[in-house]
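yo, Fe-S oxidoreductase is done. seq:
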Amino acid sequence: MSEKIFECKRCGFCCQGESTVSLSPEEQQRIASFLGLSLKDFLKTYTVSRGSRVEMKIVNGHCIFYDEEQRLCKIHPVKPFHCRRWPLHPSIFKDKENFEIIRASCPGFNETATWEDVKSLLSYKKFT
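structure:
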């Protein structure tokens, strides 16, 4: 395939839901520093704890850092690994059905891209 398989449309679909990605301690500190906050203030203002997981809060159905007006991530330069790799989640390399589900929900995927295209252009090992 000579065309791009994926190009972000900034729709915010990947930034919405009941929960967000968990943040590693390093990501928590990096985001806090980027925002000019202490780790304690960052955690209190922008995150929720779910058992042992620390996640970003949800506001209006989206991650607290998704700017609906500008359609972008407010912490883009330091966004978590799981956000940076989306929609190239490891599950799409393991199972064609997972690829089809994610592709159907993400308008950034080229409509003609196939699971085989994704697997041939991207090494599974890069994303695990």
